[in-house]
Amino acid sequence: MAIVEVKDLRKAYGGRNVVDGVSFTVEEGEIFGILGSNGAGKTTTVECVEGLRVPDSGTVSVAGLDPVRDHDRLTTVLGAQLQQSELQPKITVREALEQYTKFYEHPADWRALVGRLGLEEKLTTRFAALSGGQRQRLSIALALIGNPRVVVLDELTTGLDPRARRDTWQLIEEVRDSGVTVLLVTHFMEEAQRLCDRIAVIDQGRVAALDTPAGLVSRSTASTVISFTPSQPLDQDELDRLPQAVSIERRADRIVINGTDETVDAVVSLLARHRITAARLRVSDATLDDAFLDLTGSAAPDAADAEADEHAPAHTPAHEERTR
Ligand SMILES: Nc1ncnc2c1ncn2[C@@H]1O[C@H](COP(=O)(O)OP(=O)(O)OP(=O)(O)O)[C@@H](O)[C@H]1O
Predict the structure, then answer these.
(1) pTM for the complete prediction?
(2) Which residues sit opposite 4 in a β-bridge?
(3) Domains of the chain by range and CATH?
């Protein structure tokens, strides 16, 4: 059963459509990913779901509620990840949990959440003294305090080191396993591939594709990657004529080609024709990065982008129209 329904959502700023007819539904119990490059319109989309921005047109429904019109009731079904700026640096973990508990009529027991999220030892620690990973744990705890049916996590693991990121992935899976639907906004291909049941790839305000991670990879035209080191130089014109090759890269002495099984057959014949041997020949399935490139025409946003974002100024104008 769909718990979030977004239909033909549109939002423009300064005459530019930043969300341009986005539609998707999130099924109860899934981790649904919104994946896209910087500025693709991901946050604007989920903030419309959270009722923090007012759509220009289109409809959004969360458990049957209109996020803007029914905002008070929405907070009982939807938990949003805390923005760091919303907590005082001096507040302790315990104080934050107690304060948030008061916002809800039927809150979860914060002590149980603290146990689940491994924050027991940190109850008297001030927010400013928490590590990035601990802040994210607190952020998840605060999003879950109202016993929501859906949580929205926007770039939750940006800025975390790989270990803390993996720990956070496990927590997100545990949240889903406890019956809460997760709407996850991310830059990270690996994160999307590992966690999401389905992914909407957003490109320039539109849904470029919506499928399972495996479905996105297999529907991309470049579903296979072949790489090898030829024993003699290969003529570029001949490589360019390979059927269904989406990209051909030379990396030092290696050639890496994204294509299909037909491309692989053609590479093998080409090598045989010229009596060229291929050292360290590898044929593998394409990854979500390859599919992303194929679907959006731009390279997958990588960790470096995300780390850089951390230090970029937040979009403050959006908050002017926040409804809470
Ligand atoms: N309140 C606003 N006023 C003007 N422009 C805005 C506002 N909010 C967002 N934008 C612009 O809309 C576009 C989409 O922004 P959005 O934050 O939704 O993208 P995003 O996919 O979440 O990007 P990122 O990954 O960088 O956060 C961007 O070009 C952004 O600068």
Answers:
(1) 0.81
(2) 26, 62
(3) 2-213+300-320 (3.40.50.300), 221-285 (3.30.70.980)
